[in-house]
Amino acid sequence: MNAPDPLRPGPADLPTVLLVDDEVRSLDAMRRTLDEDFGILTAESAEAARDLLARQEVAVILCDQRMPGQTGVEFLKEVRERWPDTVRIVISGYTDSEDIIAGINEAGIYQYILKPWVPDHLLQTVRTAVEARLLQQGLSRLELDLRSGAPLLRARRQQRLGEARAAFDFERIVRAPGSPMDGVCATAAKLARYDLPVLIGGESGTGKELLARAIHYASPRADGPFVLENCAAIPDTLLESELFGHKRGAFTGAFEDHVGLFQRAHGGTVFLDEIGETSPAFQVKLLRVLQEGELRPVGSTRPVPVDVRVVAASHRRLDEEVRAGRFREDLYYRIAGATLHMPGLRERRGDILPIAQHLLALVAQELGRPGMRFGDGCLRCLVSYDWPGNIRELRNEIARAVALADGEMLGPDCLSLNLRQGRSAMTAAAVGAPAGLPASGTLQERLDAVEAMVLREALERHRWNKTRVASELGLSRVGLRAKLQRLGLEDRS
C-alpha cells in the first residue's frame, strides 16, 4: 500500500488536522474518516510531524501512543510547549491507559481515544476539538474586549447569544409539516423554560444532541455554557476526572489542578450522552453530585458548589435497565424529571425527504459540488429504506452518493446495495414478503425479523467479529450484545 501524501491540501476554509502514526494503514483509515470535514496532513513519525507543524498552522493533532523512538504523550508534551494553540488528542489501546493518565495533564491532552476506534466517534471527537479551539480563540478575543470596555463586551455577548439561539431554535430542527417531531419539539420548548432535568431517549443517530442544544438555548440558562460529554467514549477512571476535575497530585501524572466539565458549565447546561453506559460505581458518584449540588474533585477534601442543569440521553430504555438492575433507580428518577423520545427515521418517513434535501445541500457544499439534486428513483429508495442508523446513516449515504455521482443528478446507482434492496421492503404486500421474512404478524414482529436478518448477515460476513459489526451498523458493542441477546443470535449456531 502506498503511503498517503502528507501534504495533500484540503479546502482552504477547512480546519487542518495532523495525523501522526507509524502505521500507514491507520493513517489511511483515519484520513478516509476525516477528510470530508477537514484538511488532512499525515506524518509517520514525530520528527516528520515537527516539520509539518513548523510550516503550517494545525488545529488538531491525533497522535498514536506507540511509535518508535518517542511515545505519543512525550511528543504531545513538546507540542504543548511549542504550539500551545493546537488541540492534542492521543489514540491508544487499553494496555497504555496508565501511561496516558500519567501524562494527560502534563501534555495537555484534550481527549483520549481507545482502540479500536469507531469512525463516527472519531469524527465527532475531532469536530468537538475544533469547536473547543474556536471557543478558546473566542475567549482570547473576549479578553481583548475587556480591555476595550465592558459595553462593547456586553453587546458582542448579546449578539453571539442571539446567533446561537437562532441557530439552535426548535424550528430549525428539519422536519415535514405534521411530523411526529412537532410534538417532541413543542413539549421540549415548554420544558426548556423550567429548570428541570430532562432525559432524552431514542436510537443512536436520531439527533438527541441537537434537541439538547435547543433546550439549552431556549432556557433561562442560555447565556451560560453548554458542555457535553459522551459517557461511553472514555473509561470511568478518566470520566470522573473529566466531569468533576482533580487536584494536583491526586494520581500519578496529575501535575496541575484540572477543572471538570461540571464546574465549567456552572450557570449553564451539562449534556451527558449515553449515560446508560456508565458503571454502577460511577452512577453513585454522579447521584451524589446531583443530590447535593456540589462535587469533590478527585483528590480534594473540599466540596465545590455547582449550579448546572443536566440533560441526559441514552439509546437504551433506562426504565427497563432499572428493572433489570443495570441502572440505579434513584439516579434514574434524578435525571428523568421529564422524558422525551426521539423517534427513528422509520417512525417518521415523512421527514426523510426534507432532511435528505437539507443534508444534500450541506454535503454538496462541503465537497465542492453545489447544484446536486436527487432523481426520482433515488428519492424512492431513500423513503423505502428503514434507516437503522437514522440521520447519521442518511448523511453518510448522501455523502457517498455525491462522491460517486458523475453528474448533478443522483440516481439509485449511486446508492449502496443495501439501500437499493431496501426499496422492495415497502412493496412486500404487493409482491410477497422477501425470502426469510414472515408474511404476517405484528409490525414489531416483522421489524424484529428484518433486524435479525441484517445482524445475521453482518455477523456471517465479518466472521462473528462483533467489534467490526458494531462499527459498521453504528452500534456500541454493548448495544450490539443487547440486540443479539434479545433476538436470540448470541450463539453462532
UniProtKB/TrEMBL annotation:
Residues 16-130 form the Response regulatory domain. GO terms for molecular function: ATP binding; sequence-specific DNA binding. Keywords: ATP-binding, DNA-binding, Nucleotide-binding, Phosphoprotein, Transcription, Transcription regulation. SMART domains: AAA (SM00382), REC (SM00448). SUPFAM superfamilies: CheY-like, Homeodomain-like, P-loop containing nucleoside triphosphate hydrolases. It comes from the Bacteria. GO terms for biological process: phosphorelay signal transduction system; regulation of DNA-templated transcription. Residues 174-403 form the Sigma-54 factor interaction domain. The modification 4-aspartylphosphate is found at D64. Coiled coil: none annotated. The keyword Phosphoprotein applies. InterPro entries: AAA+_ATPase (IPR003593), AAA_lid_NorR (IPR058031), CheY-like_superfamily (IPR011006), Homeodomain-like_sf (IPR009057), HTH_Fis (IPR002197), P-loop_NTPase (IPR027417), Sig_transdc_resp-reg_receiver (IPR001789), Sigma_54_int (IPR002078). This is Sigma-54-dependent Fis family transcriptional regulator. It comes from Ideonella aquatica. The lineage of its organism: Bacteria, Pseudomonadati, Pseudomonadota, Betaproteobacteria, Burkholderiales.
